[in-house]
Amino acid sequence: MTPRTKHLPQLVLITVLMLPLFLQAQGSGYSAEPEISPAQIREMLNGRTVNVSDVNNSARNISWTFDRSELKEVDVIAATRQGNRVSVAINIRTGSAPGTCNGNPQMFVEGRLRLDLHYLAGTWTLTSVENLTMRYSASAYSGPSSSIPTYTPPPSAPRTISLVSPAFTVAPGNFSYFPFRVTNAGARITGWFRASGGRNDIQVLIIPAIEFENFRNRNQYRYIYDSGWVTVAQINIVPAPGDYYVIFNNVPAIVSNKAITANISLIE
To answer: CATH assignment of 4-14+155-267?
Structure first.
């Protein structure tokens, strides 16, 4: 699909700046708080405990405490900001360090967590950790000890990845955004969204990640999907592999919040 070019609508007295990119979040407005990087998230998780289910879906559960000796791979999926609080969704892969399991085989866990953070007194503090999909396997891994095994779905079983939050609000003069990555040729983005508030409209864009800075600075940008200003619409497109953003644009609004419900997924 060939991206097209257009201008972001201009709005007097409204300035939109980006939250730090490492938030990988719904972005809206200017913030003086420092960025939240994957390295900081890895450090914040040390000492935190979550209940983890068996990868074979048995009834057995364990409490997993993140340790500084573990190798942690963290991918930030999305974030939702409310004032000085941020809820961050991450994918994490980690495993127990060799020699730390009291003679038992090394164990490995992977899946999605939701982290709640609070910015107070000049620093971000992790206030809670919720396990969404993280599971473990107690079987020994024969690869290098620094590697973490990951589950690869069979080619005949496409995976579906939710790209946006199911319900959120976009403030006037702002936009919300959700980054994602397409890894397979032939992947499809499908779903729907609905807006209410003000004139009951929103503009939804899907743009290549490299165009995000042009969008936020109101320069020309390329896109692979533009809904126009609508109340409700469906999405069904086939993007090329690469990094993208889904953007819910409410920049022209002066006083009206837009309440969004959405179900937009990547199938690959």
So the answer is: 2.60.120.680
